[in-house]
């Protein structure tokens, strides 16, 4: 992916998947297209039963890792196999802006050690545009971006912090809370990733949004992620998405 000018890639893109066989090749092709001249390795970490997403991959050179299920576990498993200087964690239903790798490199060339993109939702719905607007406001105020905003972090920093908590949900919030506790600077980029609206479409906009808020509130009040995940999506107690 990108020009092979060095044996060590600049970026490792880690994609945790669960039952994404229908979408994984378009995601991989998208990353390769956006990579342009940057050296990028792609790591797909499959926590699904039978690892059918891995079996569906058509692109040679992609690093594929069968994993135990659980989003935090899959992210860490993928990162453990990464050789890039910078880690980018990408959901299979999220698309990067065209200048993503350039923007990350620029953000991490200064004091910042980690960050995420702003969020857009792939829908013409005014309601979902408002939801994305509030999500961006929240992440800038709290400095706690969600995983669908495509986290990026220097590999050395990620490993020094011990990676993500091995929990099935809220691993994204927990990770950036840890960074903030260390008072390490982060960047929330103006460029937007675009995530699928499939969850809102399937479950209903009001139900999905209120459930997300309720889960975040319960987590802040000390609820166990293993209990919360049952309300997020039934298979998420086992999944990487």
From TrEMBL:
Transmembrane segments: none
Top-level division of the source organism's lineage: Bacteria
InterPro entries: Glyco_trans_2-like, Nucleotide-diphossugar_trans, Trfase_2_rSAM/seldom_assoc
Domain Glycosyltransferase 2-like: 12-110
Keywords for this protein: Cell membrane, Glycosyltransferase, Membrane, Transferase
One Pfam short name: Glycos_transf_2
Protein name: Glycosyl transferase family 2
Species of provenance: Pseudodesulfovibrio piezophilus (strain DSM 21447 / JCM 15486 / C1TLV30)
Highest classification ranks of the organism: Bacteria, Pseudomonadati, Thermodesulfobacteriota, Desulfovibrionia, Desulfovibrionales
């Amino acid at each position: 992916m990108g020009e092979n000018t060095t044996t060590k890639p600049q970026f490792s893109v880690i994609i945790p998947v669960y039952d994404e066989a229908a979408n994984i090749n378009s995601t991989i092709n998208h990353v390769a297209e956006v990579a342009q001249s940057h050296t990028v390795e792609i790591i797909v970490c499959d926590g699904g039963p039978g690892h059918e997403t891995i079996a569906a991959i058509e692109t040679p050179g992609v690093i594929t890792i069968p994993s135990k299920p659980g989003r935090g576990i899959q992210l860490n498993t993928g990162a453990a196999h990464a050789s890039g200087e910078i880690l980018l964690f990408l959901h299979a239903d999220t698309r990067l802006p065209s200048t993503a790798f350039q923007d990350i490199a620029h953000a991490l060339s200064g004091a910042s050690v980690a960050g995420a993109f702003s969020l857009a939702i792939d829908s013409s719905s005014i309601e979902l545009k408002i939801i994305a607007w509030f999500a961006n406001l929240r992440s800038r105020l709290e400095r706690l971006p969600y995983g669908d905003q495509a986290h990026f972090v220097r590999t050395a920093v990620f490993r020094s912090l011990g990676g993500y908590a091995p929990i099935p949900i809220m691993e994204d919030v927990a990770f950036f809370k840890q960074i903030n506790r260390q008072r390490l600077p982060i960047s929330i980029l103006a460029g937007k990733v675009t995530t699928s609206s499939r969850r809102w479409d399937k479950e209903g906009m009001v139900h999905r949004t209120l459930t997300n808020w309720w889960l975040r509130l319960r987590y802040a009040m000390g609820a166990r992620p293993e209990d919360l995940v049952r309300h997020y999506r039934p298979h998420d107690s086992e999944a990487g998405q």
